[in-house]
Write a structure and sequence with these properties.
Order of helices and strands: EHHHHHHEEHHEEEHHEHEHEEEEEHHEE
Strand order of the largest sheet: 7-4-8-13-12-14-15
Strand content: 15-25%
Number of domains: 2
Structural class: alpha+beta
Distance between the termini: 51 Å
Largest sheet: 7 strands, mixed
Length: 429
């Protein structure tokens, strides 16, 4: 299929902006179609930036599509703001590029108008598929037929149109009724209802690397290196220097887990819920018995594996294969990742979100954990976003805020970056 590309220096873009009105309208319609997709509609920043860039490009005004100008006009920054300290334009553009790639990755969108944001530029690249006209065919404009009406038929004609008008109105209202927008704003609170009002703070227990010990052997060159050593007699870290202690697994978190921890803490704070943070390696059973718990991470969080072992969906691993097991389809390994896959070739991760009254601790336990870090980030995004939680509320029982639940989600991974979450399965009991 042939395509037309809108890209290049400002003067070329400006001349190319003089498209036929129908073509500009088609591009605008494609933009609205993309922004209505969950990849964009659940955010405010990403649609605002993409809309601004495309509309300015269609107007031929690409000279001002620079980082500082975008920061001022799209993100309401002050004219003298420091783009180095506040990279909002660059980070948002990067996320927009990722979501555009995911949008067109879905099947059935190959023939749509293509709107891209090339790396290193804020000028969109727009490809309009050329119409395919059969060779030798002649395009004939349709001629409206002449209609003759007998006297007195005007009223009957209006009556004939009435059912069609009603159908159009019902069709326009149906999406609103189906989406139930009044559910969205309350969905975040409904999910976290079991932990709101708890007498003790919520424990945020985040996964960590295995704990290692180090000593400093002298190398032949006279420089010092790090090497593992056996634990001290009392099993403590008393002999470690501050630098060595910093290198311990108990002192470090991964970026995906930190991202999820930050999102959950922010959501709880917005709901007026107090919390405390513990690493998995130092959290005790007594800590988990002290109040509601949020477990972040799976295979680096032993408490997650322990407390999700008797549910419908569980984490499993055999050799280099990790998967989420469905006890109702125990032989399936559809939701799996292979640990030997190079990370740039990994294209999908899976995660489990769980909320239940745990019989072991007799406390409410929430789990946000992926097979890998990409899934954990997607889980954190899901359970702190009212739009995603509202989608669960539409298929859940009316009293789902007081029920146990599990949600299996997946996220696309492109070049080592995770995308928005997508629900695969839900279970309420």
């Amino acid at each position: 299929m042939h395509s037309q590309t809108l890209h290049g220096p400002p003067e070329q873009t400006r001349s190319r902006s003089l498209r036929p009105e129908a073509e500009r309208e088609a591009i605008q319609a494609q933009l609205e179609r993309m922004l209505a997709d969950p990849l964009f509609r659940n955010s405010k920043r990403y649609p605002n930036l993409l809309r601004f860039l495309v509309e300015r490009t269609l107007q031929g005004q690409t000279d001002d599509l620079k980082e500082r100008t975008l920061g001022i006009e799209v993100f309401e920054r002050k004219p003298d703001y420091d783009t180095t300290l506040d990279p909002v334009v660059r980070t948002t553009a990067g996320e927009v590029r990722k979501r555009i790639a995911q949008y067109y990755h879905e099947s059935g969108r190959q023939n749509e108008i293509r709107i891209d944001l090339p790396v290193g530029s804020y000028v969109p690249e727009i490809r309009v598929p050329a119409p395919e006209v059969p060779t030798g065919s002649i395009e004939v404009s349709p001629v409206p037929p002449l209609v003759f009406r007998a006297p007195g038929t005007r009223l009957r004609a209006r009556q004939a149109w009435l059912p069609l008008v009603i159908a159009v109105l019902v069709g326009a209202c149906f999406p609103l009724l189906w989406s139930r927008p009044w559910v969205t704003g309350n969905a975040l609170r409904k999910f976290w209802t079991p932990v709101i009002g708890a007498s003790n703070p919520v424990l945020l227990c985040v996964g960590q690397r295995p704990n290692l010990r180090f000593v400093r052997p002298e190398s032949p060159s006279g420089t010092q290196g790090m090497a593992p050593a056996s634990a001290s007699a009392d099993g403590s870290d008393a002999t470690l220097t501050p630098e060595e202690l910093y290198l311990q697994g108990s002192q470090n978190l991964t970026i995906p887990d930190v991202t999820t921890l930050t999102k959950v803490a922010g959501a709880l704070q917005s709901l007026g819920v107090s919390y405390r943070i513990r690493g998995e390696s130092v959290a005790s059973f007594a800590d988990l018995r002290d109040g509601p718990v949020v477990l972040i991470g799976a295979f680096n969080n032993d408490w997650t594996i322990r407390l999700t072992g008797a549910q419908r969906f569980t984490f499993e691993q055999a050799g280099n294969l990790r998967w989420i097991k469905d006890s109702q389809n125990a032989g399936s390994k559809d939701w799996a990742v292979n640990l030997t896959t190079p990370y740039l070739q990994l294209n999908q991760d899976y995660a489990l979100i769980s909320r239940r009254l745990d019989p072991t601790t007799d406390r409410m336990v929430v789990v946000a954990a992926g097979l890998l870090g990409y899934g954990t980030m997607a889980a954190g995004e899901f359970l702190t976003n009212s739009e995603y939680l509202a989608a669960i509320g539409r298929v859940a029982p009316e009293d789902w805020d007081h029920k146990n639940l599990q949600v299996v989600i997946t996220t696309k991974v492109i070049a080592g970056n995770s995308g928005p979450p997508r629900v695969l399965a839900t279970y309420f009991w």
